Write the structure tokens for this entry.
Amino acid sequence: MSTQSSGLRLFWAEFRDNKVALFALVVVILMIFLALFASLISPQNPYDLANLSLMDSRRPPGFVGSGGYTHVLGTDPQGRDLLSAIFYGLRISIQIGLAAGFVSLTIGTALGIAAAYLGGRVEALIMRLVDLQLSFPAILLALVIVALLGQGKVQLIGALVAAQYAYFARTAYGAAKAERGKDYIEAALATPLSGRLVVWRHLLPNCAPPLIVVATVQIANSISLEATLSFLGLGLPVTEPSLGMLISNGFPYMMSGRYWISVYPGVALIILIVAINIVGDQVRDQFNPRLRK
Amino acid sequence: MSTPVLEVRGLNTHFFTRQGEVPAVRNVSFSLQAGEVLGLVGESGSGKSVTGLSLLGLVDAPGQIVSGSVKLNGKELIGLPEPELRERRGREISMIFQDPIATLNPMLSIGDQMRMALFAHEKRSMQDANTRCIDLLRKVGITDPEAGLKAYPHEYSGGMRQRVAIAIALLHNPSVIIADEPTTALDVSIQAQILTEMRDLVRETETALIWISHDLAVVASLAARIAVMYRGEIIETGPTFDILRNPGHVYTANLLAALPANTEPGQLLAHGGTLRSAINGPETVQPPDKGDFLSLNNVNRVFSPNISLGERIAELVGAGVRRRSTHAVNDVTLRVARGETLGLVGESGSGKSTLGKLMAGILPPTSGQIFLDDAPVMQAGKKSTLRIQTIFQDPFASLNPRMKVGHAVSEGALAHNLVKPFEVSDYVKRWFERVGLEPEWADRYPHQFSGGQRQRVAIARALAMQPDVLICDEPVASLDVSIQAQIINLFLELQKGLSLTMVFISHDLSVVRHLSDRVAVMYLGKIVELGPAEKIYKAPVHDYTQRLLNAVPVLDLS
């Protein structure tokens, strides 16, 4: 137990050395907190239509509305307080990003490892399917699936998973294929241990590092893909706007000087995605022994 | 005495790592005359290679030369800016690396690479350059050097590629060549040829040579002077003969005593390290009782390359390429008696490892049967017995890096109900002690162990399955000599204590001779000679066995 935790401690010590990555991690954690406690810290519940007043719509930052409090970032065309809408939007974005990320991680890893371990026809079938899918742009695939399945959180997550599991399958396959040829797998098979034990105890743990890296990047990708779909009007219902839909809502007013409706949710989205990517990059560098000090 | 071509004084190279500053080369001083060969020996990690790289100014970050002086033909190299160093590299001082496969660029023909190296320092006409290259290729023993210029590295074997690397190092007639384990990756017979050629080349060209190796016997056959490195320091230096006869330092004596060829067969080897289950004084191990046990009947194994979809289409349209399948094991019939140790020797590619995998039930034979007592080793493509266990060559690869070693040792026994869950820690403890590991290390991960300790873990893992037969595939080949000696001693002790039947696969004849009752010599997939170990060594019958024996460099102290 002590060795495991000292390994983690070393990992953390190395992570801490990169101040930019450390800052990005703080930003990610902060945003997760904002999303978790959105209902407590927001001045308004933007999803409760009874709270909204059209009198307050499209007001600039700093406007004191009918609710009696200051709209720090202004309001949107429906009269929502933008700050509150961003907090709630973050919640949806992160929720969907994590859910889609983990489901595609599970499905993709299972397929990739099965292909590498079983070999032969199973391998050919799975990997050709994955290759085929990787040749389509993810956004196109997601658009088609959302169009087919309709709107809603589950449908949206389903579309994101279908568009992204292939990346995990590729990564898991590559890692598992390399590990499969190593002596320790041969040793486990020569003992002989059952295939189930070999996969769970030997193959899977050794394929974990690249998968963790891909997972961080793909969570960020899920978030931006969800925002793109929402921006195009294919995401969640208008009554529960995510960051993408907030941007889309403000878009018609961009040219009439009411920049804040699109810009502030956009900034929040960019900060979130960039921060996750910086953390992911640092984790990747630390797993790559060639870049090790 | 004339002035030395290379003079090294007080060289210190340190590595600046997260764990702190690690001195890899400590206060190293030596000098070299023209045409002299200096052997630099020591275990891995003793700083030999870093010394070589420091001389060329090729130490990579986080390594750095901290202090010292390197004078080449009277000019100081330390502190020279990179362009001036580059100007000297290859022209005045050049290097031959260990791995000839990694050294040559696979995308360029050998002629391209040689000319490139030549034009880097000299202006010559194309024709002139070709003549020079052909001349050198001939000198290093490449037959048909004109064709060699057009060949690509993959068309050449490892030995041939290393010859090309040597030719490139010689292009500009450098005053000093540093050769870093250039024959370690090669077979014994090819190593012997290259050693002879290097000896002639050095004499002919008056080049000073630093030969870095962990193998004392190789160094002794080439170098007039030896420097022994230990933990970054040169602990002993002097004429080869004196050092071998009267090693002044304990470590050198240990290196010598650890060579299996210097000890009578069956005797425990001397080794430098201390060991929990250290054995006091040499003992002789008696071969136990006989009786047929593991039997192989007309076993064959053919590897045919996988047919890709593209090739299949090519075949359909009539453009099929003829594929070569390899007959790795060719009609082998063999009996191993209960309690016997059979040595299996041969060059790489002779099929000995494949035969080992067939016996271990890792690979199914293409045809023929393998029985343990009367039961087949494999049934329906799966290994059907627990009584045969395997020990692999590389303990760094054969242990799961993410599994605690105690878990690795108990896993198989638990899966097959050889031990009850509540007895596991005692069980692991027992086997750890048996192979000379501290029982409290069971909670550690493989990377926290040295190579020798890892191999002990691998042995414990195999033994914990309570096997009757142990297949050992080059179990000491990747270890340092003194560690090698400890592991061989462990095998000797286990042989006696557990009455194990062992098949010991190795390319190192002296190791096999030391451990085996009988020896089988493999060549091109067949067993060409089989007999009692002593008989094969004293009176080899087959041509190939004789060649193999003659190729081994042996320390001759007389």
